[in-house]
Design goal:
Layout: E1 3-7, E2 11-16, E3 21-28, E4 34-36, E5 57-58, E6 64-65, E7 69-72, E8 75-78, E9 86-87, E10 100-104, E11 108-115, E12 126-134, E13 138-147, E14 151-152, E15 156-157, E16 160-161, E17 173-176, E18 180-184, E19 190-196, E20 208-209, E21 220-224, E22 233-236, E23 242-248, E24 252-256, H1 266-271, E25 278-283, E26 298-299, E27 305-315
Antiparallel strand pairs: 1-2, 2-3, 3-4, 5-15, 6-9, 7-8, 10-11, 11-12, 12-13, 13-27, 14-26, 16-25, 17-20, 17-22, 18-19, 18-21, 21-24, 22-23, 23-27, 24-25
Length: 316
């Protein structure tokens, strides 16, 4: 497994070729101390068994797909399911394979992956690139893909953020430029309905302290970006002073705050509490292949898929 480093005066990251993974992201807090603001394994070889996809690149399709598959034109494509759920690309998604280093400079690193036709049941030979680029105070994560046959694509990064680098995110303030979220059933499949955040615990149009949410039991919800502001959302910790703003060309973001990581790594248990972190999975809506009223997830041979998201940091 190979690790790559990028560093400037404000930020430092390390990435891995396995899963095109964001391993570490160091940001200076209000005292000037460098804080690793994402969860990650101390021993990089532990990423070989990473059931929570910590820091990884997710594909071919991020999130859940229902019905055991999807239809394109007149053809139904069956895909791997577990208890009726296809999640994050299947049994061996993009987070569970080695990518090839395509290029590395002082500012950016790019990984490449070739996904064969019918891999995990998906049609088309898919060529994928994942690029991490450092700017003065921001990290851009960019996914591109091309196919030789009409297919479905939805890629995202699965980093878990904690702006204190320890404890939990219950003291963090969350803002989301979203007036609607996706309704889901008991298996977390979208019902197809978009619900208003008005009067609910999902209303983050004004920054809200996560731990102050009544009866908080975690969030695992897809929010639709209403595009009234440049950023889809932001996260701030008064303890570290770090604010992270998220900008993306994607129509939605899945916010995920796991209660715990089980026995995945003793390091997490020693340094972090319940609700240790939060994901900003910028992407198309889950299960879009089976909902005609969702954003189009079909990639044709004459198009290039692009997911570009920028995570900017400042002290306030």
């Amino acid at each position: 497994m190979q690790k790559h480093h990028l560093k400037n005066n404000r930020l430092e990251i390390s990435t891995l070729d396995f899963g095109a993974t964001l391993h570490q992201l160091w940001v200076k807090d209000k005292s000037g101390k460098a804080v690793n603001v994402i969860m990650g394994f101390d021993n990089i070889h532990q990423y070989l068994d990473n059931p929570f996809s910590i820091g990884s690149s997710i594909g071919r399709y991020a999130g859940r797909i229902s019905g055991g598959g999807f239809q394109i034109d007149e053809t139904f494509y069956p895909i791997y399911t577990e208890n009726g759920v296809h999640l994050h690309g299947g049994l061996k998604g993009f987070d569970k394979v080695y990518w090839k280093l395509s290029s590395a400079t002082e500012k950016a690193v790019t990984y490449h992956l070739d996904s064969a036709n019918q891999e995990e049941g998906y049609p088309g030979n898919l060529q994928v690139e994942a690029t991490y680029t450092l700017y003065e105070n921001s990290l851009a994560i960019e996914y591109r893909a091309k196919t030789d046959k009409k297919t479905v694509v939805n890629l995202t990064n699965h980093a878990y953020y904690n702006l204190d680098g320890e404890g939990d995110i219950l003291n963090h303030n969350l803002f989301l430029d979203s007036k609607e979220y996706l309704e889901t059933d008991l298996k977390q499949f979208p019902t197809g309905n978009f619900l208003s955040v008005e009067g609910t615990n999902f209303d983050f149009r004004k920054p809200k302290t996560i731990g102050n949410i009544s009866g908080f039991k975690g969030i695992d919800t897809c929010f639709m970006h209403q595009k009234t502001q440049r950023y889809i959302g932001s996260l701030h910790s008064s303890k570290s002073g770090i604010e992270m703003c998220v900008e993306t060309n994607q129509p939605s973001v899945v916010i995920f705050t796991p209660e715990h990581f089980g026995k995945t790594n003793p390091f997490f248990e020693e340094n972090f509490s319940k609700f240790s972190s939060i994901c900003f999975e910028t992407q198309l809506p889950p299960d879009a292949p089976n909902h005609s009223n969702f954003a189009d997830c079909i990639l044709t041979t004459d198009k290039v898929y692009l997911n570009k998201s920028v995570f900017s940091f400042r002290i306030i």
